[in-house]
Amino acid sequence: MPISIAPTGPRPQRRAVLARRIRLLVAATIGYNVVEAVVAIRAGAATGSTALIGFGLDSVIEVSSAAAVAWQFAGKDPEAREKAALRVIALSFFALAGYVTFESLRAMIGGAQAGHSTAGIVLAAVSLAIMPGLSYVQRRAGRELGSRTAVADSMQTLLCTYLSAVLLVGLALNSLFGWSWADPVAALVIAVVAVKEGRDAWRGDLCCAPAPTGAACQDGCCTD
Description:
Layout: H1 12-47, H2 50-74, H3 82-110, H4 118-145, H5 148-177, H6 182-203
Helix pairs in contact: 1-2, 1-4, 2-3, 2-5, 2-6, 3-5, 3-6, 4-5, 5-6
């Protein structure tokens, strides 16, 4: 899939501003996801929720993704580190998908039932409110700068929004109606989305900047 890149990049001074902005956003992402991971994994372990544990592990992977971006922009030549950082992000997605799929199928076959988790429901709702804005700001900066890794990391943050919604629905159905199957199904949805995002990151199928005037847009890449 072609990547739309503006014909002329930002000036050096603007590039410095964007790089600094991305570093700050990465730091915020790491901080939030550390808290998110601890809460989700502890709540999931306490209630036997595969979806919550998977969500927590996704937060761990988001930290590794953000760290990869931080490592890239810590160098004098971020573009030279881009491919390696993208590989780290992609492999993180694949690892998450494999683990969550295994645990979900084991829960379904074994008939395991997850308990109610107030902490999990609150966490999913808070993440659903915070993550879209964080992803949007980083994606804009990454596209303007022309950084695939910054865009990939912003997409992983956006993925957290979708996963928060899936998790919230799964936990709510289980808590309100006792539908124990909703938890592993929610976890499988997390795995499927993770595979797609991992594949896109591996191939670099991410848009780095708005397309030039008159250029064709693909998959919404030239718009925010």
